[in-house]
Write a structure and sequence with these properties.
heterodimer; A: 117 residues; mainly beta; seven-stranded mixed β-sheet; four-stranded antiparallel β-sheet; 11 strands; B: 111 residues; five-stranded antiparallel β-sheet; 0% helix; globular
Chain lengths: 117, 111
Amino acid sequence: EAEVAQSPRYKITEKSQAVAFWCDPISGHATLYWYRQILGQGPELLVQFQDESVVDDSQLPKDRFSAERLKGVDSTLKIQPAELGDSAMYLCASSPGTGSSGANVLTFGAGSRLTVL
Amino acid sequence: GENVEQHPSTLSVQEGDSAVIKCTYSDSASNYFPWYKQELGKRPQLIIDIRSNVGEKKDQRIAVTLNKTAKHFSLHITETQPEDSAVYFCAASSGRVDMRFGAGTRLTVKP
């Protein structure tokens, strides 16, 4: 079964340091999402890509967060500098994209758990 | 953008009873409504979804109903089992952008 790959699974860092997360979506999926999930809450959309283009980053704290998907395949989410409140699970998801069967059916990766000390 | 509210935040039922979780959405353009189950420490997994052209969908013990006029949809689990214990999330999407999630419902099924 095709999976969304994420790394690292766990990251512990000190505040003010830079962190980066990587996501490889299911092959052929045009749409890629980054969500942040704080313990006990629902996933919060940070950024959504359609191929290499950002279609929604309204909830991304752009002063410290950045995301890219340069070739429309894998993606990187960066935080610099990290703050204590950034401790959360960062989930990547992908979907086939508009015009495809099951266009917006999301498949999640296992997530990257960030702890900021 | 879309705003999804989910109730209750916690739900405890006896094994064999039914469980109902309700969600409301704000964007009338939303046309796709999935439900995800997340077990402790694991990724959310899609369990059922419904599109706006139908009012109800059923898959064995789970069903989802949609009321477009009132902008709410519900998850129904019948004959609950201990393995149904998890956090359940509803979501809503207009199809191109804004897959927004509710805050989640922690379901506990007591044997």
